[in-house]
Amino acid sequence: MSDMPRLWMRHESRTSERRAPLVPEDAARLVAHGVEITVEESPQRAFPLTDYVAAGCRTAPAGSWTDAPRDHYILGLKELPDEPACLIHRHIYFGHAYKGQAGARELLGRFTAGGGTLLDLEYLTDNDGRRVAAFGYWAGYVGAALAVLHHRGLLRAPLRPLDRAALDAQLSDKGSPADERALVIGALGRSGRGACDALEAAGITPTRWDVAETRALDRTALLGHDILVSTVLTTRAVAPFLTAADLDDPKRRLSLIADVTCDVTSECNVLPVYDEITDWEHPVRRLREGDRPADIIAIDNLPSLLPIESSRAFSAELHPQQLRLSDTDPVWARALLAFETAVATNHEGSTYAH
What we know:
The protein has 354 residues and is α/β, with parallel strands linked by helices. It has eleven helices and twelve strands.
């Protein structure tokens, strides 16, 4: 048992984040294998603390991870609070710090100052470079669903979490308007498949583009759709899919963009037509006014709108990796190398791109 990892699942400081990287059923499986798990109290998590207690987990007050024993891995999903300035633990979450994003240098500096480590969930990959655990399917599903609802005048803010049955009921409530056109870029990936499934549930047969179609992108065809759902995740700068000039094209039909990836502050952003994400309170931002408006939806925690389904899917993929959690396991070793490379480059004062 002493060789098994010790996990401390923190409360998420973002008030709209209701997901959990580890659900009670999978926590019970880890505990049965000798993994020690502490779960912080959280007033917003979609899974009751009592279910984790029944699974054999210990409990702790919200935010107490800062005082956790140093040998514990701190498990979370979204951004850390601004304090403490020095991070001493090994953290597992989506750090968004390796592609020059806003705040990346400061975050890496906090790890350097405290001697801690970031094992970024985005960089847990197999031998072929594929992510071993991802929220992509549900991010794509929710992103496309919100796009359809807004395009049909049915989206109401602020957004509230719900389940898939309720979301699908909204999508099918009034059917598809005549000749409603939607394009999914990155259609063969996890997020793309989710987006296509949501569009099909809404009665729309989407146009599906992936790598082959974006090598020589047909801008006229792109602008000829009503809805664009971008699910492309790139780790290097590429030619943008859409520009400000495209939005000013007098022949543009496109009126709504759903950016599932939300790399807005990174040089890897393929949609450099906006400079700030949207959120649950204000999910849509107007990019162009007038008689041919253009809007964008760019929410960076889309799966949290379906917290139960998305958490269970993610936890099912992640918890087997947690049984092998060590610096020598190939999956975790690659994540550690990505962090060490980012820290070294950050120290040199330049931008890191994985």
